[in-house]
Amino acid sequence: MTADPNCIFCKIVAGQIPSKKVYEDGELLAFHDINPWAPVHVLVIPKAHLATLADAGPEHAAMLGRMLALAPRLMSELGVVNGFRTVINTGPDGGQEVYHLHMHVFGGPRPWKRG
Ligand code: 5GP
Ligand code: ZN
Description:
Blueprint: H1 8-14, E1 21-24, E2 28-32, E3 40-46, H2 61-77, E4 84-87, E5 103-107
Antiparallel strand pairs: 1-2, 2-3, 3-5, 4-5
């Protein structure tokens, strides 16, 4: 499935819900989280709908690698110079709330609201 009509992150990809974008290419999108836990809190998502990391297979390995490799570039561009944290919540026990795969990237001085 490329897009799920009921998925809020697919709607963000389609521009139907506004977001503060920080990066976009043909495969990935990154935007500021609407409810940030940290001074810098962005979400990196694949544009194609994939509900959760539990659904990923070997065919997704390159995309997952590019998501991870984007984090240091984004943090640098956003002025984060003292380290950052990457999180992918997966499934109910992983605390996932939005079922479109996303990687949180947190940066900035602590203490943060959560985590
Ligand atoms: P999860 O708990 O699924 O790992 O995280 C979902 C994240 O998506 C939350 O941090 C939440 O604030 C963020 N979020 C939910 N809806 C929206 C939205 O419409 N726009 C943006 N920018 N972030 C959202
Ligand atoms: Zn989606």
